[in-house]
């Protein structure tokens, strides 16, 4: 197992649709093991394969939930049914989201309170569960990565402007930038 560098906003693999996994083989198991190790080292609640530079439809998560779903898992080739998203402005106290690929900053964002997730585990067994609250948010965030979308692409006009300024100030938005969990300072101070 290897901790892999985490790609940053601007790396092309983060901004295009990832490909379906075709083979549930040892290479897939090795990749998923690296994703778990990288997620843990980065203190993330989720990690999508494009975040370690791999354009495949896989994400891992680590998040206690109220939905009777294991707190740690992987979704391969997932599909998502998303509940209604409120039109109210996002709460700056309770609805702030961050991303390992937009390191060190976070912004409020409305998400659906409920999703249904279907997909496969690393052995090819079917998974099918509902997620609510923060777990639902995590699922939406990670699934977006597989379609080349970052949470900053979903921000309202006010926060989008702030996030673009932050990206510019950090020199992001160009290919080739990464940070190394366990080596570079933890961007979110964990
Ligand atoms: Zn993310």
Short description:
The chain is an alpha+beta fold.
What hetero molecules are bound to the protein chains? zinc ion
Q: Classify the secondary structure makeup into a structural class.
A: alpha+beta
Largest sheet: 5 strands, antiparallel
Shape: globular
Strand content: 25-35%
Rg over C-alpha atoms, rounded to the nearest angstrom: 16 Å
User: Which fold does the CATH topology refer to?
Assistant: Peptide Deformylase
Poorly predicted ranges: none
Question: What's the order of the H and E elements?
Answer: EHEEEEEEEHHE
Strand order of the largest sheet: 2-3-4-7-8
Number of domains: 1
Oligomeric organization of the protein chains: single chain
Keywords: Hydrolase, Iron, Metal-binding, Protein biosynthesis
Family: Belongs to the polypeptide deformylase family.
InterPro entries: Peptide_deformylase (IPR023635), Peptide_deformylase_sf (IPR036821)
Active site: 142
Secondary structure: elements and pairs:
Elements: E1 6-7, H1 26-41, E2 46-48, E3 58-62, E4 72-82, E5 96-99, E6 102-108, E7 114-120, E8 126-132, H2 133-146, H3 157-170, E9 178-179
Antiparallel strand pairs: 1-9, 2-3, 3-4, 4-7, 5-6, 7-8
The structure holds zinc ion.
Main attributes of the structure:
two-stranded antiparallel ribbon, binds zinc ion, 190 residues, five-stranded antiparallel β-sheet, alpha+beta, Peptide Deformylase
Structure overview:
The protein is of the alpha+beta class. The protein has one domain (6-179): Peptide deformylase (Peptide Deformylase, Alpha-Beta Complex). Helices cover 23% and strands 25% of the residues. A five-stranded antiparallel beta sheet has the order 2-3-4-7-8, sandwiched between helices. Strands 1-9 form a two-stranded antiparallel ribbon. The chain has a two-stranded antiparallel sheet with strand order 5-6. The radius of gyration is 16 Å and the shape is globular. It starts with 5 loop residues before the first strand and ends in an 11-residue tail after the last strand. The mean pLDDT is 97. One of its GO terms (molecular function) is peptide deformylase activity. It is an enzyme of class 3 (hydrolase). Removes the formyl group from the N-terminal Met of newly synthesized proteins. Requires at least a dipeptide for an efficient rate of reaction. N-terminal L-methionine is a prerequisite for activity but the enzyme has broad specificity at other positions.
């Amino acid at each position: 197992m290897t901790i892999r560098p985490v790609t940053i906003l601007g790396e092309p693999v983060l901004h295009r649709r990832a490909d379906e996994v075709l083979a549930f083989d040892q290479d897939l198991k090795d990749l998923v093991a690296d994703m778990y190790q990288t997620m843990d080292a980065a203190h993330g609640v989720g990690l999508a394969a494009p975040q370690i530079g791999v354009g495949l439809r896989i994400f891992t998560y680590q998040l206690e939930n109220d939905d009777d779903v294991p707190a740690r898992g992987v979704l391969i080739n997932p599909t998502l049914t998303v509940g209604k998203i409120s039109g109210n402005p996002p709460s700056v106290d309770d609805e702030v989201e961050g991303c390992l690929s937009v390191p060190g900053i976070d912004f409020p964002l409305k998400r659906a309170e409920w999703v249904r997730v279907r997909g496969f585990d690393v052995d090819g067994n079917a998974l099918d569960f509902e997620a609510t609250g923060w777990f639902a948010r995590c699922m939406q965030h990670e699934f977006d990565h597989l379609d080349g979308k970052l949470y900053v692409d979903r921000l309202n006009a006010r926060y989008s402007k702030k996030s673009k300024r932050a990206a510019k100030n950090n020199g992001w938005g160009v290919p080739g930038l990464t940070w190394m969990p366990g080596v570079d300072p933890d961007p979110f101070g964990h």
